[in-house]
Amino acid sequence: MKHRRSMVIGLSALLAATLSPVVTSTAAFAAEPNQVTDLTVSQADGFATVAWTPVDGATDYQIERTAVDAAGNPTDTARVVGVWRPNRQINNESPTFADAGFNPGDRFQWRVRARIGTAEQPYSTAVAGTTKAPWGDPTTAGQNLRTQWETTNAAQYTSDVNEYAYTAEVDRLSERVRVVEIGRTVQNRPINMFVIGYPTPPATPAAVAATSPLAVNCNVHGNEPGDREACLIMARQLAFSDDARTLDLLKATTVLIIPTINGDGRAANTRGNTTGQDLNRDYSLIRQPETAAYVRMLRDYRPVAGYDGHEYGNSQAGDLPMLPPRHQNVAQQIFDESLDMIENHMYVEGAKDGWWACPYGCANGSGVGLSEETILRNTLGLKNTVNSLLELRSSGGATRPDESNTANNRRRKTFSALWTFNQFMDYHHAQVGDIKKARGEAIEFQAGNNGRIVFRGSRVVPLHPAPHPGEAGPREDLPTADMILDSAPCAYKLTEEQYNGARTDGPNDVGATVAERIAAHGWKVVKVADGYIVPLAQPERGLIPLLLDEQAEEEWVSGERVYPTLTGTHNGPLTISGFACLSGATVNGPVNVRPGATLVATNTTISGPVNAASAAGVFLGESTLRGPLSVANTNGPVTVIGTKVSGPVNVANNTGGAAPYIAGNSISGPLSCAGNSPAPTNLEVRNTVDGPRAGQCATL
Amino acid sequence: MRRTLALVLSVSLLAAAGCSGSDAPVTPDGLAGPLCAELPAGDEPGNPTALSREKAGEALSWITVLTTFDGAMRASELLPELEGKQAITVLAPSDDAFAAKFSQDNLDELMIKDKDTLRTLLRAHIVDRSLSLEDLRDADSIKTLDGTTVRVSSADGDMAQIGDEARTVCADYRIANGRVHVINHVLGNLPTTAGQGDSGH
């Protein structure tokens, strides 16, 4: 820094001495001590990035904006629109500030000055620019669509009626868009989702899932509407933009945008839905139709990454507080990848464009909701989806002078959300390999029923060293002893009453049955003579105990813990009738699962063939089979995940409900599947197969 | 201490000359108060001239800092009654005022489940006749629709003080049957719950 600074001084001194008439850059006129130099302003959708060269010894900087006409004459008073502080960004060598909160298309000039302590230093030379008009050519069909929020200059939010009309037009005019109704609210409002791909979105949810889609949830709290407006604008950009970046993104994946999961709350401007339920305390429990719709969408479309948009009143926090899924039952890989997205992408890109992404919960921020699995961020993590919370700081505060809930405040929030969601798409595009790897490893880890169970409690988010020196980070929120179960059961067993009994925890005291909710989550269940068994050896192992164990904080029912039946070594053939759970076991011999019996095996080594014919259920997770595997005519669920098989694998004529999972296995031999209904899926976690893949498993 | 008409007029003239700052100019649209500069003006959607022809419900939906009050009014189902009155004055607390008064849970409770309490609360913000800012500054007290008598007086910055805590921050919106004044505190006698619980996430 010192070097660069002295160079500037030297240059201006030289210019002054020679009275050169040639150079007119701002740097050349850094004549006054401590004057900010090299001011640049670049325009993006709804914001302008103001950048400058730092002044030695500056405590902070004030960013001033003045409306000007085409001739450069001020048309309004100058105002300080922001304060840059060192905790805004990870690299203080290149300060940037995203100025937002103006009518897009208006013309302004900007100046920046340093403050040393509280002493104001000289302003930089002004740089004028015309801000970008709302996206889309006003004379091109589709591009010229505008939301109510846009046409009213942000004086009004887009109403439900206007949203539906706008959504229908985007759908009608763009080949890339299919709008699907994923459910209805309590008051019967449609819950729509944009499914956007190029040249057209894949035809079915499973085909969308195959593209490793990403999902943006825009408006769960009805009185936090800023993200939703960004989503509606982004949908138009994705639908009608022909720039290379957009096309590259959409050729590679499918973007899922859910503008309004809480349409009733949005219409009434309430946080909760029309029953008063905070929907972001319901994504695991799915007592409400809105959250149930979301969870069924997740089951069917299987997004690999997500963002969940909110607003947030803490005036001391950054522009864009974010948080990864911290619940300790979330697989480490998902937590790590989510934190990578926030810190190694959002912080880095934020420093370039001037937005202040920061950890949610810093600077006296909220201490709630860190490990509640009822919150979408954690629910998604427990479903092996890389994701983050996004808050838009709704209050003004020290670094964004008080804006109250004005049109300019709304614009700042919405365009900061638009920036974030675009960065999210870029991150996904660049890192989809890493995201899929993390997801695959997480699914295998969970299907292996590994480790203790934590009912509530968070992973620590280490304070990022650069942007927040000396500040308090997000609360630790470690699990208390009563929230830990060191010895995980193998499964939960529910009675008929628990599984199919009427419930009163939904709207109007009517709730979906546990059976229906389990189906919405997509868990596999074995019907046995005296009840229903939910093995943990499946991808959502982290979530299952939180809803079925009596020790959990917010469970549906207190299911009976079913513990492993074999954890040691068994020599010789093993014939299974009834229910068997092998955990960390070794079987030196073949395993034969008799008709109507259930086998669950995790971290188990079986030396010999495994043969299941007409079983009630077969669950293999992170196990090793030294011999062939045959699973045929099962009347219930089949899941083989993260398992190493030395020999051929044959999965045939299984018709027990949902698609068999054949995912992330390593098979030394052929893999053949036939006659299963529905056909098996690999959940987009590819199997490694030495031999040929045949039949229904040809592409798994 | 009552102000004279001449004094008020001189403030208007100052405003026309383009003064700004804490002295709360009267805007070209006829509003007065420090918050007015942040609200739709001129020929923008939601400008005060356009609202002057509108009923209360429609007008409230355009004043950006009144989203909570607007939602509460709709939830209360009081609007048809108010819009049917010959003249009203609406003392409308800003979103910031609501945020400083009620927790989010409390607000949802009022708007969804406890509408009788909500109606009483909102009636504490309505007067049965049309009062300008000047009227408020000149009066000693006003009686709101909940039956309460509230002391009013002139306040610094040519604003009006309403009760002990509230003050106009953008006054003199005209609507079809009266006036709307944006104020910075919630009136009525409900307990403050802001800060209780935590509505993060």
Per-chain topology:
The complex is a heterodimer of chains A (700) and B (201).
Chain A: H1 2-18, E1 37-44, E2 47-53, E3 60-67, E4 79-84, E5 96-100, E6 107-116, E7 119-123, E8 127-130, H2 148-151, H3 160-173, E9 177-184, E10 190-196, H4 205-209, E11 214-217, H5 226-240, H6 244-252, E12 255-258, H7 263-268, H8 289-301, E13 305-312, E14 320-323, H9 332-353, E15 357-359, H10 376-382, E16 386-393, H11 407-447, E17 453-454, E18 484-485, E19 491-494, H12 496-500, H13 514-521, E20 526-528, E21 531-535, H14 544-548, E22 560-562, E23 569-571, E24 574-576, E25 579-583, E26 586-588, E27 591-593, E28 598-602, E29 605-606, E30 610-613, E31 617-621, E32 624-625, E33 629-632, E34 638-641, E35 644-646, E36 649-652, E37 661-663, E38 666-668, E39 671-674, E40 688-689, E41 693-695
Parallel strand pairs in A: 11-12, 11-13, 13-16, 14-15, 23-26, 24-27, 25-28, 26-29, 27-30, 28-31, 29-32, 30-33, 31-34, 32-35, 33-36, 34-37, 35-38, 36-39, 38-40, 39-41
Antiparallel strand pairs in A: 1-2, 2-5, 3-4, 3-6, 6-7, 6-8, 9-10, 10-12, 14-16, 17-18, 19-21, 19-22, 20-21
Chain B: H1 5-16, H2 48-51, H3 56-60, H4 67-76, H5 79-83, E1 88-93, H6 95-101, H7 104-113, H8 115-123, E2 126-127, H9 133-138, E3 141-143, E4 149-155, E5 159-162, E6 166-175, E7 178-183
Parallel strand pairs in B: 1-7
Antiparallel strand pairs in B: 1-2, 3-4, 4-5, 5-6, 6-7
Signal peptide (chain B): 1-24
Pfam families (chain B): Fasciclin
Organism (chain B): Asanoa iriomotensis
How would you describe the overall organization of this protein?
The complex is a heterodimer of chains A (700) and B (201). Chain A is α/β, with parallel strands linked by helices and 700 residues long. In chain A, the strands form eight sheets. Chain A has an eight-stranded mixed sheet, with helices on both faces. In chain A, helix 9 links the parallel strand 14 and strand 15. In chain A, helix 3 packs parallel to helix 5, helix 5 crosses helix 11 (407-447) and helix 9 (332-353) packs antiparallel against helix 11 (407-447). The longest helix of chain A has 41 residues, at 407-447. Residues 1-28 of chain A have low confidence and may be disordered. With 201 residues, chain B is of the alpha+beta class. Chain B has a single domain (34-183), classed as FAS1 domain (Roll), CATH 2.30.180. Chain B contains nine helices and seven strands; from the N terminus they run αααααβαααβαβββββ. A seven-stranded mixed sheet of chain B has the order 2-1-7-6-5-4-3. In chain B, strand 3 and strand 4 form a beta hairpin. In chain B, helix 4 (67-76) crosses helix 8 (115-123) and helix 7 crosses helix 8 (115-123). The longest helix of chain B is centred in the N-terminal third of the chain and has 12 residues, at 5-16. Chain B is globular, with a radius of gyration of 16 Å. Chain B starts with a helix and ends in an 18-residue tail after the last strand. Chain A binds chain B through residues 77, 151-157, 223, 268-272, 274-276, 278, 280, 310, 312-313, 360-361, 365-369, 372, 375, 377, 389, 403-408, 410, and chain B through 20, 35, 38-40, 44-46, 61-62, 64-65, 67-68, 70-71, 74-75, 94-96, 99, 104-105, 107-109, 111-113, 198-201.
